[in-house]
Amino acid sequence: PRSANQIFKTLALLWNSEGRERPDVLTTGAGVPVGDKLNLMTAGPRGPLLVQDVVFTDEMAHFDRERIPERVVHAKGAGAFGYFEVTHDITRYCKAKVFEHVGKTTPIAIRFSTVAGESGSADTVRDPRGFAVKFYTDEGNWDLTGNNTPIFFIRDALLFPSFIHSQKRNPQTHLKDPDMVWDFWSLRPESLHQVSFLFSDRGIPDGHRHMNGYGSHTFKLVNAQGQSVYCKFHYKTDQGIKNLPVEEADRLASTDPDYSIRDLYNAISNGNFPSWTFYIQVMTFEQAENWQWNPFDLTKVWPHKDFPLIPVGRLVLNRNPVNYFAEVEQLAFDPSNMPPGIEPSPDKMLQGRLFSYPDTHRHRLGANYLQLPVNCPYRTHVANYQRDGPMCMFDNQGGAPNYFPNSFSAPDTQPRFIESKCKVSPDVARYNSADDDNVTQVRTFFTEVLNEAERERLCQNMAGHMKGAQLFIQKRLCKHSWGKKRLIFRSFRWIYVIIYFIFLQVQNLMAVHPDYGTRVQTLLDKYNTEGKKNTVHVYTRGGASAVAAASKM
């Protein structure tokens, strides 16, 4: 029989004879050529492994470290690359170079994602979708970290960790827990708007190509004359809105859990490039001062009849990632990355994200994550006084001074890039925003945005999910009178607790619209009388918990 070397030579000849390129020489991570990657180096054919087998140790040591922490939220995602093209002039509002003239194009990266699931979860679950856009502009990267909804569950960033915990797994059972989900939502009535959107048809979009995107937060635009307005960003799908029926979503979750990733990748591979039309809404400072709602409240929309959409451009995706880990898993968005002309507003959720996003990237990817090719602001020159740190990938800015100020022509500030001024006059305090009209816009959504068939599906979807929660949580959400009956003015010292609970019960589905609460409660009554639910509740109202149980062990 022929030797292995002869076989390899024959295969190489066949490879080259068919016009293919000669394969690269296999190497270790240090670039040292490898002669055999199929067999360990041992003391005899049955002997033990030798420590000097660096081919093995190099391979295994890297394998042991090839996973990085997954995102705490938005872990499951898809990404693609393309460009943003300006189609309409908005320089009267914004001086950012990304908008400087009609026809200008800017490279972009977009990552779509679910929110609560892990990296291996199904794409077709009922969950908000992340829709984050990175613009590689001439003045640094601009990251617009949005969702497929114009609103969110909470308006105060201090609640974000608890909100996410409620959507994740129970700390004892490691199961998704309807008690946790609905307990939080029912105790925070500002979530009603987003919850209603989530359980409507748009709660399960048909892939990533058929959904809209929103910057969601309120931002500030500044023009070349220093004049400012508030702004919201929208990107409407050019493919048309399509949503999945519940039954089809459930089927795909078991037969094709990567449905949305596959759909996006295949469309781009086949030259069917998805696109979105980019719009802004604009609100003057005077309008913001006199508007009936807080313009920085993330649980509310700006009605289009009052603040019409202004067309700006198009987002087009025309390239799939070459390597998923390098270009999608390591892709990091940071809402504090804003070029001159785009600034944050007092939006409390946005303000919180300005810190939390870069902080989590430094944990997940390292202090020098902005040097990774997919995150690098490659269309501008980075010059600062940040040095060293793990995985410094370039020349570390050479021998330039690493302190400021200095006398040696190192990078200096430019006054024309100073942020715009804003007035702040109120007292510093922790302001309670829980009672900022949590029902009016939800009522409009239920009665005017949805048609009758959509309202019915919303109630069915909501009741179908809520039926796993304990009865007192169901009643809290559906019946505004329950809280008043439950608590009585026993003594003066309880008055604040009583008022608080009455408030909670009023701000719910019945308060939005009697038909809304009645429909959901009727469906829940039907589910609850059909038989005992196959659910173990590890939390009880009396205060017993997994922690208490564990303390007795």
How would you characterize this protein structure?
The chain is 32% helix and 14% strand. The chain has 18 helices and 10 strands. The protein has helices at 4-17, 54-63, 160-167, 178-187, 192-198, 246-255, 259-269, 285-290, 324-329, 348-365, 440-449, 452-466, 471-478, 482-486, 495-506, 509-512, 514-529, 546-551; strands at residues 77-86, 105-114, 129-137, 140-147, 213-214, 219-222, 228-237, 275-283, 310-319, 342-344. Strands 1, 2, 3, 4, 5, 6, 7, 8, 9 and 10 form a 10-stranded antiparallel β-sheet that branches. The chain is globular and about 80 Å long. Its cofactor is NADP(+); heme. The chain crosses the membrane at residues 494-513.
> How do the helices and strands follow one another from N- to C-terminus?
HHEEEEHHHEEEHHEHEHEHHHHHHHHH
Find the count of extended strands (DSSP E, 2+ residues).
10
The termini sit apart by: 67 Å
Overall radius of gyration? 28 Å
Family: Belongs to the catalase family.
EC number: 1.11.1.6
Cofactor: NADP(+); heme
Domain Catalase core: 27-412
Briefly, what is this?
By secondary structure, the chain is an alpha+beta fold. It contains 18 helices and ten strands.
